[in-house]
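Entry 12.
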Amino acid sequence: MKVTIYHNPGCGTSRNVLAIIRAAGIEPEIVDYLENPLSRDALKSLFASTGRPVRALLRRNGTPYDALNLGDEALSDDDLIDAVVRHPILMNRPIVVTDLGADLCRPSQTVEKLLPPGALPKTHVKEDGEIVSFAAHEDGK
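Predicted 3D structure (tokens):
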């Protein structure tokens, strides 16, 4: 299965999702979107593939979100995408794309729905020591 993660190596959630994907035995294509920003068309396509509203894919903390007044409901999706093109840090992360779909994987264990059934171990220890269980194993499978 082909897996692509739009990754920020400085983000703990993004690092945890990458570790979970690797725990499933998959080496994903890693797109460091801060080092290699996406084009407007690529960003628009990626956001559309998640099925989420553009606004739901923006990050507020540690970004120029407030300074750019991106909370203004009058701004269109195109306005928001243009802001992300200019300031890639505004894109929330990680977004994972697989043959099973695409989504923003927050919290990190939500990546499970995008991976092959049964590919993950029963549990995974996140970098902060939290242990997460995966649904495919909750019923004894």
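Annotation: The first helix runs from residue 12 to 23. The CA atoms of residues 42 and 48 lie 10 Å apart.
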